[in-house]
Amino acid sequence: MNKKIAVAITLAVALAAPFIGYPVFLMKLLCFGLFACAFNLLIGYTGLLSFGHAAFFGSAGYVAGHALTVWGVPPELALVLGTVAGALIGLVMGMLAIRRQGIYFSMITLALAQVVYFVALKSPLTHGEDGLQGVPRGRLFGAIDLSNDLAMYFVVLAIAIAGFALIVRIVHSPFGQVLSAIKENEPRAISLGYDVDRYKLLAFVLSAALAGLAGATKTLVLGFETLTDVNWTMSGLVILMTLVGGMGTLVGPIIGAFIIIALENKLGDVGTFLVNTTGIEWFSTLGESVGMVTGLIFIACVLLFRRGIVGEIGAALAAIGKKSKLA
Amino acid sequence: MKRHALAFAAAASCALISPAHAQVSGDIVKIGMLTDLSGVYSDVDGNGGAEAVKMAIADLGGQVNGKKVQFIVADHQNKADIASSKAREWFDQQGVDMLIGGTNSGANLAMAKVAAEKKKVFISIGAGSAQLTNEQCSPYTVHYAYDTVALARGTGTAMVKQGGKSWYFLTADYAFGQSLEKDTTDVVKANGGTVVGSVKHPLSASDFSSFLLQAQTSKAQVLGLANAGADFINATKAANEFGITKNMKLAGLLVFINDIHTLGLNATQGLYLTDGWYWDANAETRAWSKRYFAKMKKEPSMLQAADYSAATNYLNAVKAVGSDDADKIMAYLKKTKINDMFAKNGEIRPDGRMVHDMYLMQVKKPSESKYPWDYYKLVATIPGNQAYLTKAETKCASWK
Amino acid sequence: MEIFGKPLQVMMPQLLLGLVNGSFYAMLSLGLAVIFGLLNVINFSHGALYMMGAFFAYIGVTTFGMNYWVMLVVAPLAVGIVGILIEKTMLRWLYKLDHLYGLLLTFGITLLLEGVFRSFFGVSGQTMDVPAALSGVTDLGFMVLPNYRAWVVLASLGVCLATWFVIEKTRLGAYLRAGTENPKMVEAFGINVPLMVTLTYGFGVALAGFAGVLAAPVINVTPLMGSNLIIVVFAVVVIGGMGSIMGSILTGLGLGIIEGLTRVYYPEGSEVVVFVVMVIVLLLRPAGLFGKEK
Lengths: 327, 400, 294
Prior knowledge:
Helix content of chain C: over 70%
Order of helices and strands of chain B: HEHEEHEHEEHEHEHEHEHHEHHHEEEEH
Number of strands of chain C: 4
Radius of gyration of chain B: 22 Å
Order of helices and strands of chain C: EEHHHHEEHHHHHHH
Strand content of chain B: 15-25%
Radius of gyration of chain C: 19 Å
Oligomer: heterotrimer
Strand order of the largest sheet of chain B: 2-3-1-4-5-6
Strand order of the largest sheet of chain C: 1-2
Largest sheet of chain B: 6 strands, mixed
Structural class of chain B: alpha/beta
Largest sheet of chain C: 2 strands, antiparallel
């Protein structure tokens, strides 16, 4: 019952939001939320730390962007192409990386993502440092004009909800149960007869595909794609989002993504606000200190809030629940 | 599952932090400037450029026809995505009427696209790439201070005439560097020279040694440095370190007075360069530069002077037209001559190019320099109509 | 004389430069390997600490007027002290947990350090002059080699070999290696293992700081200089085999030379060749070239 109320409230807020806030910013939040959820599928539910997720996010963005600008395809096709690109790169990377465990797995994903970055840097199709600019939004299914920010927002919201619903479905399915088993105790899963490599690879490809969908959608919304999205710092950023929100929770990564993106974009405004209220000039440099603040949050989360915000709130509520039961 | 509700509420409120501003500010003329404030190009425009715009606004009393003038500036860190996002946000949320593009061609090309989409005036000061008024021209873009074609025609022609027939390029690997290399290659070949090869380096590269070694083995007569700012400074230093300057002449294709100041006359004497403005050219430039120097403690570069001039002329246009409507302003700008301390008889062509004279300079020997910042001697003036792409050569669709 | 179509004149300079780069890779991967061997921590902040060493040298020389040779000792010490602080206040809480958290913590520290230096110095580089004694060039015929770069190679080789000697051939090194294998047993023998761990971390990062001082006069000193390097150094450590000292040194030098060779034949690929090598090595010899399969 509570769950249904929670979902209803969220939906209401999501539908009302673009009329109150800045739609483009909200859409960015949604795209990164999907990206973080996709990443969490791998780390939170399968126990695999990929340090190269930006490769899927950015490449899909480039593919979609290229399809929209050069081939002039309609937006829905571009999104499909982006997702497929993400899945394919995920397949190749997964096949190479799954062979190894633990830290080696992470290192391979990092190295392969660097190769993808290099390709993006040198390929004339991506325009290197200048990036892909002026990506048109087009008309969805030939009918909905996406250059209207409101229309675009509802489309992105639909995509984000669909992606999230898919992840929820995966996690609660038998397939998802096996993934949890692999995360808990891989040798035991093997001894029970599961072909763990196949499961891990499938999880990897699904995660990559959804990350690709997020990346392609973001390119459609913002109208450009640059090397920032294939850089390893982007891979680090999505790890941070998931960590802050709560690894292994369904909702955590979304919260984490919202917080981190809001931080990046609004820290400058917070600084200006603080300068105006306190008169201390130093706060105006806050806008440039995003890296520092991000680092501090990272450190704090790893040392103190390992379960992330949602995880900690969940644990706190559970403790309260227990106390009231005992009383 | 209460935590879901709490969590979502928290998330939603994050999203709503972004304030809902009114769409277009009717009573305020808002100028926004996106430039490199902290990176490889921060010296030649950066905070100095922002100061120059502030001076322009102050000189007009901070208001135009009774409407207040506001100015905001932000750092795009030489990243096209930051420039594009910020520009969009400023147009949508902050009611910016005119956007000034500081350095970095990639960022400027991105901003030009956003400005064209939003139908707002965009004045590009710091970008070099001639694409802004050529393949990527737009009715809302003004390319103000210089471009790679003018630089190539100035320095390139001079070097080839001096005997530098074979060239090797060290190029910054993005829009500006590639434009500069291409335009200079065209000029070199048109003058009977050859291009032996080229090597690309990443923007703000940390170590030029391996690239310079490749240049050295090419045995070309001239090393064309198709980069700028700190990249140019570091490449020049490394070229001296590895003894490349003994066998090859250096051609600095985009050099600012700040670069000469950092490198010193010993390392740069005799260097040819093309500039759009010099602080010590005449009494008018000296007078303005003195005011600038009082604030920034350095002499202004061409870009900083252009920032002042562009802001002033834009505000005068708003005054004359009586509104900040982009189409009317652009029409006015394109039919009014620019006559101020930055340019004499400058005019803005239909493709958005602000045409004015360019100057071929040579860096003085240490013995010839009489006072601080006395670095250049004028070798030749290149008239505006010869420096830039002509109508016959242009690829701009709306100017054929 | 030509090798695969390229004259010696063209190859030798790039190989020499590759050797210089390789020296940096060797020193940095040595520090990483030592730390990973004993602490089981992937020290992502190695790059940021290398950057800090370079900045300390820069600040020491320009602001405090100290000379380069003094900074060569002082800067690594300062970085080492910072390392010890990091270990004592933050890292030690994570030893019981998954490798993952050590990596994430040090990643966070990297962002923090880079942010701090960025707010003071901006992103564009600072340059430091080469000390007078090492300036000037030697004409080797096929290229003009700045003397300073030769010094870099010699100094790094010296430090690397000294470290290897201490770890492999001395009693202190023996305690260290034993502590890696079986900390409880070593503690039972009366050795203060936590202290050893702390000092090892401090030493590992001091090596990075030393590399930073060496780098300052030749590379642009920017807050981001470490990030650009650290990813490559990770690849080097993985190729060499984590925890093997000599492996890291040889791999570092070797990869520097391979990079140099790539610059001769296919300059565009020089940035990515290390990663390609890493993937190949991991597929064929998962524990690394010199590592031991645990």
